[in-house]
Amino acid sequence: MNVAVTDRRPDTANETQLGIVDCDVHPYVKTPADLDPFLSARWRKHRQETGVRSRSPFLAAPNYPRMSPYNGMRIDSYPKDGMHPGSDLALMQQQLLDLFNVSYGLMMPLLGRGSDERNVEFGAALASAANDWEAEVWCDNEPRLRAGVQIPLEYTEAAIKEIEKRAGDRRFTHVMIPPRGLEPLGRRRYWPILQACAANGLSIALHLGGTSGHPSTGGGWPSFYHEEHPSYPQSKEALVTSLVIEGVFEHIPGLRVALVEGGFAWLPSLAWRLDKHYLRMRDEVPHLKQLPSEYIRSNVWVTTQPIEEPERPDDLLATCEWIGWDRIMFSTDYPHWDQDDPRYAFKVPLPEKEKRMVFRENALAFYGLG
């Protein structure tokens, strides 16, 4: 009777002594008016009188996560002033940065700005305002935090302009693109934006989310949040497949992509399937010079949350070995209800070298920190 693996408890006491890098931290505005100081008079008036027009058909439902209690947040993450969790820097410092000795927190604002707005000019204004808000309200007051560049994905010229504007500003380390867009991200119409990211030394964070107007699952709109939450890896699989098969990584070999908040145990099986079909269908994609798995290994990184928890915890180590220990980065997803605690996220002890890589060194290298 083999019970030793499942009964084992990981020795995680030293994780918080590493000075970890958290690759998924969510700051929020207290109210939408927080962006007004960074908007022109025209767009302030537009926000107040017309408001946003999301591509989602369910305008009254929260974009992320959908239909969940407490707006998907930890109950104890609500500030004393009653505002949105993640909007209080002091509480974030107490509950995350200080508690877990976070050296750097990579911010992933989920404001529904830029790419989700039907009015692309207003979307561009919102994206730029959100970037100014991240830099001035958060980074300037907490040097451990780093900002993500918000862009209007469907407005190419404005997106490139915003990327170039933030390039060289050390407060910004990545460009945020939602996985659920109007079209698969590998389409050639998005290549100029992806090229601008690579040319300006900015990695891409493909964080869960986006309101394209398409159903959130491949089988249509789900009835329950319980259906939606396990479907997140589907959007990641579609993204990886599109980027690889369309030839993005062959055309832009310097592009670095992080898959944020989609788990990672599904990646080996996807790579196996892509390789299998490439060997049978390679005449259709002569632009690919390598196996799909080789592009994945050279250009794609993953973050841990929501980390898979197999019945045999050691199976997770085998998965990590296939992906490559140098391609896995730790994330908490603070302040969401399913946030991972670095002390308990891995249900099996990690070798010391690999532990340093996952909790710190990989992210330092990927985001050019330190």
Describe the structure.
Helix 5 runs parallel beside helix 6. It contains 13 helices and eight strands. It has one domain: Metal-dependent hydrolases (TIM Barrel, Alpha-Beta Barrel). With 370 residues, it is of the alpha/beta class. The termini are far apart. The chain has an eight-stranded parallel sheet with strand order 1-2-3-4-5-6-7-8. It has helices at residues 4-7, 41-49, 89-97, 120-139, 156-166, 191-199, 225-228, 232-245, 248-251, 267-281, 292-299, 314-323, 352-366; strands at residues 20-25, 102-107, 145-150, 172-176, 203-207, 257-260, 300-303, 328-329.
Q: Please tell me the CATH architecture by its name.
A: Alpha-Beta Barrel
Q: Over the alpha carbons, how many angstroms does the gyration radius reach?
A: 20 Å
Report the top-level CATH class: Alpha Beta
Number of strands: 8
Contiguous low-pLDDT stretches (5 residues minimum) are 1-12
**Arithmetic mean pLDDT:** 90
CATH level-four homologous superfamily name:
Metal-dependent hydrolases
The number of domains is 1
Q: Strand order, main sheet: write it out.
A: 1-2-3-4-5-6-7-8
- Strand content is 5-15%
Tally of separate helices: 13
Largest sheet: 8 strands, parallel
- Helix content bin: 25-40%
Class of secondary structure makeup? alpha/beta
Could you please say which CATH topology applies here?
TIM Barrel
General shape: globular
| Termini separation | 47 Å
Write the element-wise H/E pattern from the N-terminal end onward. Answer: HEHHEHEHEHEHHHEHHEHEH
